[in-house]
Design a protein that fits this description.
alpha+beta, Aminopeptidase, Alpha-Beta Plaits, 2 domains, six-stranded mixed β-sheet, 24% strand, globular
């Protein structure tokens, strides 16, 4: 009888992808990376009988790998499994227990940068495509595996570039990508999140200008460092409106909260008072899912201790919520700082939040697969406080979910702490479940 890929097989490929060190970064105002190395490793896995493979490398070193098992019915719905191949940097000297690019299997876990974000899923997707092809699986609609670069820097040189220039290469009706699978015990039983919505994403660049002068004469000086401090203070105190969206209501309803807390969490006037009543680790998620956030993350200015600098640059990470206009949020920040900056001193790139419906045949399959994998667990539509490449797929017409299956011992709080964190790792049981998930979804939805 045919079987899904085993977690040990996923662990071996995952380790190789981690060791490839396909770090993408954003330097000198541009994204760069070497994801073609991981794409080549994955191509060696998927290519062979029954799989059509395309290599799209419009940007040197940043290939997308597209592997397709062609469907038998051109009118049947098609499905993509989409995994990114880049990872964020990791400092080997900054407290890691094991080499962040060693990809070692230690204590039943694969350690290294990308182990949860998201090379684990990318590896299991690729192996599942090959396993299905080897079995002679012929789906009704196309089954596509897309390994894509540049997700960690917003996907402009990855998913967006392919959609804008070669959409037919990857176009499907439905897609599955990160992030999903974290399981939580509630009074009503086990619930498993699947992301139906991503927050928006944006970069706000601000230049605070002054006049360069000697630091020994501060009286009357025009010091842009002080202006930057005031800008940071105002941004920290900025309070965009609370947004209660349908995915948020659905998520709250599934958590088994007492009636009073549940009611407060969907009331814009009471939600913030209820944050401290939530279980440990849940308040940041609730806060982020219900409003636009803007966080100063980069400050650049000054080179010499005895010189007041000419200018200071601030970088702001902005995340619009469902119901926000990303453009309007950027304009609010411009107005907030209008007396500190000139008309050309704020640069903004932003994107609205996105969402997919849950009244689809794919969602029903995902719910069934989840229930069988976790003994009756309920699949819950969840909001993602972060951003993924789903934000490019949804506006292009593909209903996209962040789906996965993870071990119950990997709590949502622990799972999220490993994203971009020290000692990132994933357990073999989760790798087993992940492979089962892709295999069963493909068989049931496309079979």
């Amino acid at each position: 009888m045919a079987e899904p890929v085993r977690g040990s097989e996923v662990a071996e490929l995952l380790g190789a992808l981690i060791r490839n060190r396909c770090v993408s970064s954003f330097d000198a105002g541009a994204s760069n990376g070497t994801e073609s190395v991981n794409a080549a490793t994955l191509r060696a896995v998927v290519e062979g009988p029954g799989v059509d493979v395309d290599w799209h490398e419009a940007i040197d070193g940043r290939a997308s790998l597209v592997a397709r098992i062609a469907g038998s019915d051109p009118t049947a719905p098609s499905l993509a499994l989409m995994g990114h191949t880049d990872v964020v940097p990791a400092d080997e000297t900054d407290g890691w227990t094991h080499d962040p690019f060693g990809g070692e299997l230690v204590g039943g876990e694969v350690w290294g940068r990308g182990a949860v974000d998201m090379l684990n899923q990318t590896a299991s997707m690729a192996l599942t495509i090959r396993r299905l092809a080897d079995e002679g699986f012929r789906p009704r609609g196309d089954l596509v595996f897309w390994a894509v670069p540049d997700e960690e820097n917003g996907g402009l040189q990855g998913a967006k570039q392919v959609i804008d220039t070669a959409h037919d290469l990857v176009r499907t009706d439905f897609a599955l990508t990160e992030v999903g699978g974290a399981a939580r015990r509630t009074p009503d039983g086990l619930v498993v999140d699947a992301a139906v919505s991503d927050k928006g994403m944006g970069v706000i660049g601000i230049v605070l200008r002054g006049r360069q002068s000697h630091a020994s004469l501060p009286h009357g000086a025009d010091n842009p460092v002080l202006k930057a401090a005031e800008a940071v203070r105002r941004i920290d105190e900025w309070r965009p409106p609370v947004r209660i969206s349908d995915p948020w209501r659905r998520w709250v309803a599934a958590q088994g909260f007492d009636a009073e807390l549940a009611a407060a969490l969907v009331d814009p006037d009471r939600l913030d008072e209820a944050l401290d009543l939530l279980p440990p680790g849940m308040a940041p998620h609730a806060h982020a899912c219900t409003r636009c956030t803007a966080v100063p993350t980069v400050v650049k200015g000054g080179e010499k201790i005895n010189t007041i600098p000419q200018s200071v640059e601030l970088g702001i990470n902005i995340r619009p919520a469902l119901g926000d206009s990303a453009d309007a949020m950027a304009e609010e920040l411009r107005d907030l700082l209008s007396d500190l900056i000139g008309p050309d001193d704020l640069f903004a790139f932003q994107q609205d939040a996105t969402a997919s419906p849950v009244d689809t045949p794919l969602w029903d399959v995902l719910a069934g697969v989840t229930a069988r994998a976790h003994g009756g667990a309920a699949l819950v539509p969840a909001m993602l406080a972060a951003w993924t490449d789903a934000s490019w797929l949804r506006p292009a017409g593909t209903a996209t979910y962040g789906f996965g299956l993870l071990s119950e011992k990997l709590s949502p709080e622990e799972y999220w702490s490993r994203f971009h964190g020290v000692d990132e790792r994933i357990d073999l049981e989760s790798l087993d479940l992940s492979a089962i998930g892709w295999y069963e979804v493909a068989k049931q939805f496309l079979g």
